[in-house]
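Action item from last week, closing it out:
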Amino acid sequence: MTMITRIDPFRELASFFENFAENNGKEQLAAGTFIPPVDVYEDEHSLILKLEVPGVNEADLNVSVENNTLTVQGERKFEKEEKEENFHRIERRYGSFTRTFKLPATVDADQVDASYDKGILKIALAKRAEAKPKQIKIANVAKTLQG
């Protein structure tokens, strides 16, 4: 018996966001380490992540993709200009961080671009050609038969 299955092209992207929501760094927050906030959005060509990493040198950032998992690692170092005991209050977070994101199958893991500007790390993951919307021209049957 043949079964018809409804295809939801956004199911994998939804699972990406669920994974993102589940892996929100609660353990890291409890430990008091630095966790850069991230915005995730998409357009018709790419899935884009923007991580807020002010005070992190570009050389202290590492972006990698392995087994459909995007990993961003880095470190915001404590400035040694002032002695720690001279501070009245330290609210900014310092230290190493790692953020991981399970990528949806709609993303081409071989086409990843990363750029860094004014404390924002932008990672663009190209969508696979089959995942991009396709415009289909509708033929006018009446004109075809007449002519």
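Closing note: The chain is about 15% helix and 35% strand.
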